[in-house]
Write a structure and sequence with these properties.
Helix content: 40-55%
Shape: flat
Strand order of the largest sheet: 2-1-5
CATH topology of the largest domain: Herpes Virus-1
Amino acid sequence: MASQRFSTNIQQEVTCPICLDILKDPVTIGCGHNFCRNCITQLGETCDNFLQCPLCKSSMRKDAFVSNWQLGSLVEKIQTMDLSEVQLEEEELRCPKHRKKLHYFCEEDGKLLCATCHESNEHKSHNTSTMEEAAHHHQEQIQWHIEILEQKEQLLAHMKAEDEERISVFTVRKTFIL
């Protein structure tokens, strides 16, 4: 369990608070917080000369950030961790109550279960499945949502292009009339 907490803590430290993804080209801003260079740059584009840190709300010049090479190197090392290390962590997943390996997922409670918990009265009437089945099901659901979002993105891009065309026509007509 300690190894799992350590891994989770490390992952949180290398996650950008803006995009919630692993830091890409990490920079440190004036208050000491770290972000992806692209994320903080985009945030700064909406400001005049100063921006507010999304975490602590400190105000600083929008160009007051420096590359964090050490953090960038750490991110690269974490991303290239040996898969066997990750598998060891998965093997360490144990039921906090019975210290048995976790094999099941309870849909009602959203919890991982060991065989003893799975058979207990608390979960016996719940909809449960193996962790692999649950993972597959949830991956399908995520993929379905991604496809819907991609369709919406295409529709919005099409609508934007149509609106830009209308603006262009309007601008040409306005110029011609003047």
